[in-house]
């Protein structure tokens, strides 16, 4: 798993590359925690490079959603591949988090 | 067993090995020329079962995990075996959203995902006697192609 | 052995299983975050050794192949083990372009490729007593990254 | 391994997709044999989709070269990935068979 991060004022953008399972979810968790300063109120999780997700990956995404919601922040997802989209839908994640096609879209609308 | 192709993979219950098990079984299943969604189903089901053997079977320690995968005609059977603490109430464990793990990021969706991906999911387990998960999936014949 | 990660893969010597072995060992090696050429080296060396166990070890029949792969720090050790006919003259077998197979498409480059891909290639074999190939490769430390 | 074939007069184009090893080399061999009618004097082997090759794959390529040479035909390769190129170079294959970037180039020049 490759994890890229970028902070823009109140927005933290996290880009993931690889497979999101128990092992890499742990890395994602740590990477987000590390950069989630008090000023951050918006988390954009770009899943463009994620080729696989299971329930552990799902749990890590929902965990970040819970965390940012607790501080009254928002979270959205960007551009997911078919396998990932299928799992997010199955678990109802897309009902609680908006999904955008691109980061630009996410930054404009979220 | 006439024309079956079987493999056995053995490893230690570490989170980083879940990907290895997933990839190995997917490579065996690929011999059936499955569709991408079919292959994704196999990956997901194996990932969930091996993750369970990794996080639930040996609390506070690690142990051996054995994955036995077999192709017979167009049927894939995968057994994920651990020698850990076992499951006391299997019916309850299989319920969607049920988890014994207090961690709120543990979704309790492992068994639900296995069932949505495979044709059949069998669980053999008893407290102190380990767990065997048997995943079965049929791959319908596809029209012959140059491949 | 303190912090080693080991796996064992067992399968039948069929040509279609060479890809499974290659992919499994590459998935283990991927835990070191290797470069693409390093990963290609591992794939090639494993492919050659497992192909040999498939075409040379059990002439006219099939048999068991065991692949034992171990990561210790940044060293990968892969043993490819068969219980087949063994090699009478190991030194000769390792010579580039040497093949006992009369098929002109058999290149005799298997051992040469293993050696060009790995840091060390050890062969243990005797007629009638099977063959063990040990492949060893070190992955130099890379600058730490977010991964 | 996916194998596509196309015959253009005296030219047989074979396109491979996947990994070329002992198992798939056998399939390639059969596929070429099947289409190598007496009229064929030129074999264009497109390796664009080949992501891996070992000595068995190499042997199958050289075997086809030998076969087409025996009937005074020619053979060339098209667009190989870095791993494949490295192996072809190591084995000296590129000294005996031209390599082109595209099928168009191969058909013009070979
Ligand atoms: N291999 C196993 N060993 C012991 N307990 C297990 C095993 N697999 C599953 N379980 C039990 O079944 C429960 C439900 O599993 P699952 O549906 O995968 O959800 P989750 O893994 O998120 O808890 C687990 O919380 C655990 O108590
Ligand atoms: N596992 C094995 N069992 C028996 N003989 C083997 C084995 N591996 C290699 N050999 C012998 O060593 C020779 C050289 O092997 P190699 O360099 O891989 O070339 P090739 O496989 O093309 O013949 C083979 O022709 C065979 O006689």
Features of this protein?
heterotetramer; A: 110 residues; alpha/beta; 5-stranded mixed beta sheet; 5 strands; 45% helix; 33% strand; B: 147 residues; alpha+beta; 5-stranded antiparallel beta sheet; 31% helix; globular; binds adenosine-5'-diphosphate
Q: Could you explain how this protein is built, in words?
A:
The complex is a heterotetramer, with 2 copies of chain A (110 residues) and 2 copies of chain B (147 residues). By secondary structure, chain A is of the alpha/beta class. Chain A has 5 helices and 5 strands; from the N terminus they run ββαβαβααβα. Chain A has a 5-stranded mixed beta sheet with strand order 1-2-3-4-5. In chain A, α2 (55-70) links the parallel β3 and β4. In chain A, α1 (22-35) runs parallel beside α2 (55-70). The radius of gyration of chain A is 12 Å and the shape is globular. Chain A starts with a strand and ends with a helix. In chain B, a hairpin with a 2-residue loop joins β2 (64-72) and β3. Chain B is built from 4 helices and 5 strands; from the N terminus they run βααββααββ. A 5-stranded antiparallel beta sheet of chain B has the order 1-2-3-5-4, covered by helices on one side. Chain B is globular. β1 (5-12) of chain B pairs antiparallel with β1 of chain C, so a sheet runs across the interface. The complex binds adenosine-5'-diphosphate (2 copies). Residues 48, 52-53, 56-57, 82, 84-87, 93, 98-101, 106-111, 131 of chain C line the site of one adenosine-5'-diphosphate. One adenosine-5'-diphosphate binds at residues 48, 52-53, 56-57, 82, 84-87, 93, 98-101, 106-111, 131 of chain C.
Helix content of chain B: 25-40%
Trace the largest sheet of chain A across and list its strands: 1-2-3-4-5
User: Quick check: average pLDDT of chain A?
Assistant: 95
**Strand coverage percent of chain A:** 25-35%
Structural class estimated from helices and strands of chain A: alpha/beta
Helix proportion range of chain A: 40-55%
Radius of gyration of chain B: 15 Å
| Global outline of chain B | globular
Biggest beta sheet summary of chain B: 5 strands, antiparallel
Strand count of chain B: 5
Number of helices of chain B: 4
Q: How much beta of chain B, percentage-wise?
A: 25-35%
Q: Could you give a short account of the major beta sheet of chain A? A: 5 strands, mixed
| Most extensive chain-chain interface | A-B, 23 and 24 residues
Count of beta strands of chain A: 5
Low-confidence stretches of chain A: none
Spell out which ligands are present.
adenosine-5'-diphosphate
SSE arrangement of chain B, N to C: EHHEEHHEE
Structural category of chain B is alpha+beta
Low-pLDDT runs of 5+ residues of chain B are none
Could you spell the SSE succession of chain A in H and E letters? Answer: EEHEHEHHEH
């Amino acid at each position: 798993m490759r994890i890229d991060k970028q902070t823009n004022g109140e927005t933290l953008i996290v880009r993931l590359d690889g497979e999101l399972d128990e092992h890499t979810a742990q890395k994602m968790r740590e990477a987000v925690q590390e950069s989630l300063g008090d000023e951050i109120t918006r988390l954009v999780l770009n899943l463009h490079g994620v080729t696989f997700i299971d329930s552990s990956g799902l749990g890590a995404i929902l965990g970040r959603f819970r965390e940012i919601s607790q501080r009254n922040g928002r979270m959205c997802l960007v551009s997911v591949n078919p396998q990932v989209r299928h799992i997010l839908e199955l678990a109802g994640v897309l009902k609680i988090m908006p999904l955008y096609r691109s980061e630009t879209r996410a930054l404009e609308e979220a | 067993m006439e024309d079956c192709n079987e493999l056995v993979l053995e490893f230690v219950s570490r989170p980083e090995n879940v990907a290895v098990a997933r990839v190995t079984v997917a490579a065996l299943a690929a011999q059936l020329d499955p569709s991408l969604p079919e292959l994704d189903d196999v990956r997901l089901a194996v990932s969930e079962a091996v993750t369970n053997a990794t996080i639930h079977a040996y609390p506070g320690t690690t142990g051996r995990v054995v994955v036995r995968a077999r192709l017979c005609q167009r049927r894939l059977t995968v057994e994920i075996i651990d020698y850990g603490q076992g499951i006391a109430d299997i019916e309850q464990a299989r319920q969607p959203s049920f988890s014994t793990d207090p961690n709120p990021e543990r979704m309790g969706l492992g068994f639900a995902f296995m069932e949505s991906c495979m044709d059949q999911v069998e669980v053999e387990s008893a407290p102190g006697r380990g767990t065997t998960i048997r995943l079965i999936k049929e791959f319908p014949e596809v029209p012959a192609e140059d491949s």
